[in-house]
Design goal:
By secondary structure, this protein is α/β, with parallel strands linked by helices. The chain has 17 helices and 14 strands. Helix content is 48%, strand content 13%. It has an eight-stranded parallel beta sheet with strand order 5-2-1-12-11-10-9-8. It has a two-stranded antiparallel sheet with strand order 3-4. It has a two-stranded antiparallel ribbon with strand order 6-7.
C-alpha cells in the first residue's frame, strides 16, 4: 500500500520530467539551447544566507566511502573495510534482476539490525559485521528506470520509488532508534525540478511513516552536465534533506557525450585519457566544492575504480600512484571525502585524507572562484587510438555479458567497471561512428570496422569463457544495436532491462 501510494501520487510528475528531458535534448541537438547558468535563479545562487540540511553526527566525517552491490558478502566486507561510509548500490553496480532487488533489500534489512552473516559455500569461511563499522547509505535507481516486476493499475512502478520505498519503510525507524537514519545517494538528476520531486517524496514518506521531518538525509550525485549548472538550485530544492554533493565523474563524462551528441566539434579523445585534471572536469569539481561549502554541506570526491593487480608489481604500483595523486588533488582542493571501489584502497585514501585533513571535514574552506559556462563545456584534448577503440568495445561486451547474467559490476583491465563506465564506452563508439572520427593511425571509424572488431572481441571472450555459461553473443548484438542506432539511446540499461524481465517470468 505504501509503494502504491507513492506511485499514484508521483508517477505523473516523474513521467512529465522524463518527457522534459527529451525536449531539452532535442533543443541541445538542434543548437537551440546551449548549457548555461539560469539567469532566473541568479538571486538564489548569489544569496549566501540559506544553507543545506544540518549534517547528522555520523555523517560529519566521510573521508573515505566505499561503494558496491548489495550481495551479502559485499555488504559485510564493505561495512568492515575501515571506510567511514558504505554506499549500498541498487543502481550502476547492480543488475536489476528480481532476485537481486529482493535479496538486496533482505540483506540490508539484516545489516541495519547488525544481524547479517555469510558462510562461503566452498571454504566455509564465515563473515560477520564488526561492532564498529561503516555508516550505511543506499543508492536507489534513477528516475528513468522502471520496476517492471511490480505494477500498479497495470503500469510498472518507478524503480527509484521501489528501492527507496522498501528500504525506508522497513528500516527508517530502526536506523533512527540506533542513532543513525535513512541516508540515500540520489543518482542521475538533471535538474532542480527532479530534485524537488525527491524532496516531495521524502516529505510524503516521513508523513506516512510517522518519521520526524528531515529524518531522511541525501547526498546528490552531480553526474550530469546540465546538473552542474544547477548545483545551488538542486541543494535548495532539497535543503531540508541534502547534506552533500558528489562528483560522479564517470556518468558525468557519459553525459557530456550525450548532451553534445549532435555536435562534431565536441568529439572526445579516448575515454582513458580523460582524467579529473581535464579543464572541464576540474571546473566542475571546484564548482561543486564551492557550492557545498557555501551551503555548509559535504563536497565528496569521485571514484577510484582501481583494483589490486596481484601478479604485476610494477603495474600495481603505477595504479596505486594514480590513486594517490587523485586523492591528494581532491583533499588539497577542498573535498571532504572520496570514493573507492575496493577495500584495499581504503587505507591509501584514509592515509592521504588523514594527512591533509585533520578535522572531520573541511566545510569551513570556502572557495572564491568564478566559473563560466564555457569552463564547464570545454572540449578536452587528446587522441583517438586503435587501442582505445578496441578497449571500449571489450569493456562494453564484458560488462553486458556480466549484467545479463545478473552481475552489475565486474573487474576489467584492472578497474572495477559498472554501468557508468560501460555507458561512456558505448556512447563514445556511437559518437565516433556518427561523426566519422579518425583514429590516430588515419583510419575512419565506420560500420565495417565496428562490426569486425565486435566479432573479434566476442570470439576472443567466448574462447576464454570455455564451458562457462556466457551471454557474449547477446551482448554483442546489443552493443552493435547501441552503436549503429540513428539516435543515441539515453541508457543502455533501459533497453537491455527487458531481457531480465522476460527471463524472470
Amino acid at each position: 500500500r505504501f509503494l502504491k501510494k507513492l506511485h499514484v501520487k508521483f508517477e505523473d510528475r516523474r513521467q512529465a520530467l522524463l518527457r522534459k528531458r527529451k525536449e531539452v535534448q532535442a533543443d541541445l541537438n538542434s543548437g537551440k539551447y546551449v548549457p548555461d547558468f539560469d539567469p532566473a535563479t541568479k538571486a538564489l545562487r548569489d544569496d549566501l544566507s540559506w544553507k543545506g540540511a544540518a549534517v547528522p553526527k555520523d555523517l560529519q566525517n566521510r573521508r573515505v566511502e566505499i561503494t558496491g552491490p548489495t550481495d551479502r558478502k559485499m555488504i559485510i566486507n564493505a561495512l568492515n573495510s575501515g571506510a567511514n561510509v558504505f554506499m549500498a548500490d541498487f543502481e550502476d553496480a547492480n543488475s536489476p534482476t528480481w532476485r537481486n532487488q529482493l535479496e538486496g533489500q533482505i540483506n540490508l534489512y539484516e545489516a541495519v539490525r547488525d544481524n547479517i552473516s555469510y558462510k562461503h559455500p566452498t571454504s566455509k569461511k564465515e563473515y560477520v559485521v564488526k561492532k564498529e563499522h561503516a555508516v550505511l547509505k543506499v543508492r536507489p535507481r534513477g528516475w528513468h528506470l522502471p520496476e517492471k516486476h511490480v505494477q500498479a493499475h497495470g503500469k510498472p512502478i518507478s524503480g527509484a520509488l521501489f528501492d527507496f520505498g522498501l528500504y525506508v519503510f522497513h528500516n527508517a525507524r530502526a536506523l533512527l532508534d540506533k542513532g543513525s537514519g535513512p541516508y540515500f545517494y540520489l543518482p542521475k538528476l538533471q535538474s532542480a525540478e527532479e530534485a524537488q520531486l525527491w524532496a516531495d517524496v521524502f516529505a510524503e514518506a516521513e508523513q506516512e511513516l510517522g518519521l520526524p521531518k528531515g529524518s531522511i538525509k541525501c547526498t546528490v550525485l552531480i553526474e550530469h552536465l546540465l546538473a552542474s549548472f544547477q548545483m545551488n538550485e538542486i541543494v535548495h530544492a532539497l535543503k531540508d534533506y541534502c547534506v552533500g554533493l558528489n562528483c560522479g565523474r564517470w556518468d558525468y563524462i557519459f553525459s557530456y557525450i550525450k548532451v553534445f551528441q549532435n555536435h562534431r566539434k565536441c568529439l572526445l579523445p579516448d575515454r582513458f585519457q580523460i582524467t579529473m585534471t581535464a579543464p572541464f572536469l576540474r571546473a566542475y569539481a571546484l564548482e561543486s566544492i564551492k557550492t557545498c561549502h557555501a551551503r555548509n554541506i559535504s563536497a565528496m570526491g569521485g571514484m577510484a575504480a582501481q583494483i589490486p593487480i596481484k601478479f604485476d608489481v610494477a603495474a600495481n604500483e603505477k595504479a596505486l600512484a594514480a590513486v594517490r595523486a587523485d586523492k591528494e588533488r581532491e583533499v588539497t582542493d577542498g573535498h571532504d571525502g572520496t570514493w573507492v571501489a575496493h577495500p584495499d584502497l581504503v587505507p591509501i585514501a584514509r592515509e592521504i585524507f588523514d594527512g591533509r585533513m585533520p578535522s572531520p571535514n573541511q566545510i569551513d574552506k570556502k572557495l572564491s572562484l568564478s566559473t563560466a559556462a564555457t569552463d564547464l563545456i570545454a572540449v578536452p584534448e587528446g587522441t583517438r587510438t586503435e587501442a582505445g577503440f578496441r578497449r571500449n568495445i571489450s569493456v562494453t561486451l564484458g560488462y553486458l555479458d556480466s549484467w545479463l547474467r545478473g552481475v552489475g559490476c565486474v573487474p576489467l583491465y584492472n578497474l572495477m567497471e559498472d554501468a557508468a563506465t560501460a555507458e561512456i564506452s558505448r556512447a563514445q563508439l556511437w559518437q565516433w561512428l556518427h561523426h566519422d572520427a579518425k583514429l590516430e593511425d588515419g583510419r575512419t571509424v565506420d560500420a565495417n570496422l565496428i562490426k569486425m572488431t565486435i566479432a573479434a572481441e566476442a570470439e576472443r571472450r567466448l574462447i576464454r569463457a570455455g564451458s562457462v555459461v556466457s551471454r557474449v553473443p547477446e551482448a554483442a548484438d546489443l552493443l552493435e544495436h547501441f552503436i549503429m542506432e540513428d539516435n543515441l539511446s539515453d541508457f543502455l540499461t533501459t533497453d537491455a532491462y527487458d531481457k531480465l524481465v522476460s527471463e524472470g517470468r
